[in-house]
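User: I'm designing a mutation panel for ABC transporter permease and want to avoid disrupting the core. Could you give me a predicted structure to guide residue selection? Please restate the sequence first so the numbering is unambiguous.

Assistant: Good idea. Sequence first, for numbering, then the predicted structure tokens:
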Amino acid sequence: MNLSVAWKIARRELRGGIRGFNVLIICLALGVAAIAGVTSVRESIARGLEREGAALLGGDAEMEFTYRFVTPEERAWIDANTDAVSEIADFRSMVTVGDERALTQVKAVDGAYPLIGTVGLPDGMTLATALAGRDGMPGAVLDGMILQRLGLTTGDTIAIGGVDFIVMAELLREPDNASAGFSLGPRSIVSLDALRGTALLAPGTLFETAYRLDLPDGTDLDAFEDLAKSQLSDGGFRWRDSRNGAPGVSEFIDRLSSFLVLVGLAGLAVGGVGVSSAVRAYLDRKTGVIATLKTLGAERGTVLMVYLLQMAVLTTVAIILGLILGGLAPVLAAPLITSALPVPIDIGLYPGPLAQSALFGFLAAAIFVLWPLARTEQIRPAALYRDAALGLRGLPRARYLIVLAVLIATLVGAAVLFSESTRLVLWTFAGIAAAFAFLVIVSALTVRLARRGARATSLRGRIAARLALGSVGGPGSEATSVILSLGLGLTVLSAVGQIDSNLRGAITRDLPSRAPSYYVVDIQNDQIDGFLTRLKSDPGVSDYESAPMLRGVISRINGQDANEVAGDHWVIRGDRGITYSAAKPDNTKVTDGTWWSDDYTGPPQISFAAEEAAEIGLNLGDTLTVNVLGRDITGEITSFRNVDFSGAGMGFVLTMNPAALAGAPHTHIATIYADAEAESALIRDLSRAYPNITTIRVRDAIDRVVSILEGIAAATTLGALATLLTGAVVLIGAAAAGEPKRRYEAAILKTLGASRARILWSFALRSLLLGLAAGLVALLAGIAAAWAVMHYVMETDFVLATGSAIAIVVGGVLLTLVTSLWFSWRAMRVRPARVLRDAG
């Protein structure tokens, strides 16, 4: 192989222009741009979070305790090792005005809050002034949503958990809101001193305390964390520091962007079909040149290198265009992105994301370019001349198939390396491969059936139908490229549409039919009997459940660190609800082991949720250490039981015998199933009798989750539409490449006396057949992918979204029809004499 000769020939051919490679360039540029845009935004968010980590967190570090304040000894240690400390309590409660109530997330703060940043209030009012209140009544600042919902204005009196406050201002900006995570209610800020000693912050009540730390300059955060965990509460707290001030936001962005990058890779796969088709069409036109070069003594490797170098140049141009588009898009859309996300963002051009996108682009291009190029390398000059009219055929030689396998493995490995979820990447690539193979099989089947149909005696006299079927089943058919390009794009869109419909349906339709009307938390021990009596006496209450409620962190499994044993399982990530019961509840089904006796007073025993235990790898006889209110309780797992979380009813992963939690302060939780017309009066009576309780309407919680899902659905749908756009470009390219063939067909048919209407109808039938095949395959593949996601990832039932399914099929047919007819009409306008003269 002579590389210099190959480059000289390649350069001369490129001087003739890049006609015919528009599809290749556009498809690669769109795929690379999509990935570059997503990864650039993710990098911008990561840089912003890193820069503003301390401001987002509200300090250099934070120690969060579950439902208790630190002891005097612990506070003394914190004060001695920090420059400043801010103490915060965070909990849910109800804002009450007369008979009107609204759920709120209360932040009770001390005078040092915020250590970093400022709270935004109208007219330059300071937080200290607002919380001081007036006329002897403490003040509160409320989110505008609460003010609007309850019709409040400055100076009005409200009650939070039975404690009166005066509304001093609307909360415009909370400096550390990104670190707060998910909340069901809008924010209220009050003074911590105004709530000390009240039932809202009583031992056992559901609240969290956070101690924001201002550390001396140069403090080693890892060393300080280790020191704190060794000297305070046996590490029974959660630690965060400024290196990741908003971990929930960061994790969410990483997972969403990983998913969108995979959608972008699906778009590259769709575009790859167009790339391969463009290269094949180009080589078909160059068969005479290739044959001549071989006849003159050019080696097969040299000929292959000629066109490989050409494709490398064109691929580089396309990727550069894609990087420019993807890199500049976030910069141009910076105001929109900044306003849409509640985190600081450093928008800019970052080499890392662009290099990652370029790598994906080059690998995808190499995979789809090598296939047609390799087929050229093995064909003899005589065969090239003989088969010039039919195009290149046959499989590449084995060594090229091995290279293709290595390139695909490299692409998958790169996606795994840059993604947060290896499992998601592998399943996505498996799905793309399965869909690709399915579409290839269907396209081959379509060609075979069309060929047979064109010869069927039943179609005699139906000239348009026979012409359409003959074209689909004949040599040089565009069936494969059309069904592949359109089918892959529609498959992604179909899967996203079905998943979106099922998620919305599971939350807004299925869940309310079996979910409770209200959750009630923070019911004190001396209130539970009266509370349950009120529920029993109300005919509108169809059912209710109650249980003692504590919260604890599973810190050790069989004496080892729980995170090392269970990894990132959700049961270990934070504090979990814990209850106790002497007798086995009637609705509890023990799947393995035995429940303790009613009068058992021995060492702590644990009944654990069976499904979660299997995921973690727990067995009967294993021990768990649970930190409850700063005290470690170690118990043995003596039984597993079924726990159903799907109905939003009451379910506890971990239940213990009563003696194990004796003396631990706690409250009770209840779920109420009531008729809609009885809800208002019931909740009003309960709130008056027990002002400290918090009632959470399940419908409000569902609406909150739905609003988040809508944002996710919008992002994923945009990604799917980008993939479909790439498919449309490929489809247009295939139609454009087939225009000369249509022009020749039309000229022959016109010469033989066919009317324009009949010829156009035959072209339309051809498009309808291919569009229908692509749409039906995409529908089946998309439904299968959506079912897998709902069943294995979301672990919920799958329901076919008929409307979305019909739209996919109809959309595929119409897109193919419109594209094909446009180029067919162009072909019809050329006079037969000119076409036949040029062909001759």
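For picking mutation sites, this is relevant: The chain has 27 helices and 20 strands. The longest helix spans residues 698-737.
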